[in-house]
């Protein structure tokens, strides 16, 4: 609503009153000069968000997912073991299981294609330079369909992870699920509630097709002989061949005296290497908890002591209430436990 100020003019006077204040003007027989009047709006201006910010965010998040799935695809092709910062060897077991294939196609390869498509669409929408004759509305519709399928697949895989791989962890699986849900959420926010409601039927159809496809693939797949998902590992004892140093032996006795515990699994190579650091004599002094004393196969639960300790990877140390994940140097164990080499426990 605009507010205008009017001036009452009188040719017989040398002054004009504007809102009670006089304004002088020069008069000639045929014209007069009046100061310009200003028109102001009572509605405040609102700052608009930068154009294309959501599409730039989508492109960035999808780029991270593309790098992750490219790395996993490389591991799948070369047969290499995945580096798992959390979860120990269980990460490779999940990535090498039958659930990592969809109708024989490696799942990371499918994910790489999906993330690549989303990243490309996000960049094109952000730059407003769409290729192949597709317009903006159709590009957004394709983006919605792809991110919906990714979110539905991630939800299905989280269900598989919690039911078929109980007690194991896969940091790559969780990261991919987080990225997929983020892309889906940003896409919905960019479209707006009204448009999302109009496309609700499409989203439900896409999600249903994705879940049906995955369920059919896993139901019809035959266990491969090389799949770790079907391999049973009977329990076997490991032997330590290295001798124990006086420092290692004293540290092991100290850890035992304060109730420190080392949680591990018989098939865990890092657990074996941790024991080798102590040596044969010192390793026998440790309070070691085997989480799979009856053997291991996919879906086997850890013993109650390991579940209660919330073990997520091997080895895991619990010393004076502090949790140390992964293989530790003896000097670090001595520092955390407060070991003084000059004071030997009785």
From TrEMBL:
One of its GO terms (molecular function) is quinone binding. Its main location: membrane. It is found in: Membrane. This is Vitamin K epoxide reductase domain-containing protein. Residues 51-191 form the Vitamin K epoxide reductase domain. The keyword Transmembrane helix applies. Belongs to the VKOR family. It is a multi-pass membrane protein. The chain crosses the membrane at residues 99-121, 141-159, 165-188. It comes from Flemingia macrophylla. CDD domains: VKOR_1 (cd12916). InterPro entries: Thioredoxin-like_sf (IPR036249), VKOR (IPR012932), VKOR/LTO1 (IPR044698), VKOR_sf (IPR038354). One of its GO terms (cellular component) is membrane. Residues 1-20 form the signal peptide. PANTHER family: VITAMIN K EPOXIDE REDUCTASE DOMAIN-CONTAINING PROTEIN, VKC DOMAIN-CONTAINING PROTEIN. It comes from the Eukaryota. Keywords: Disulfide bond, Membrane, Oxidoreductase, Quinone, Redox-active center, Signal, Transmembrane, Transmembrane helix.
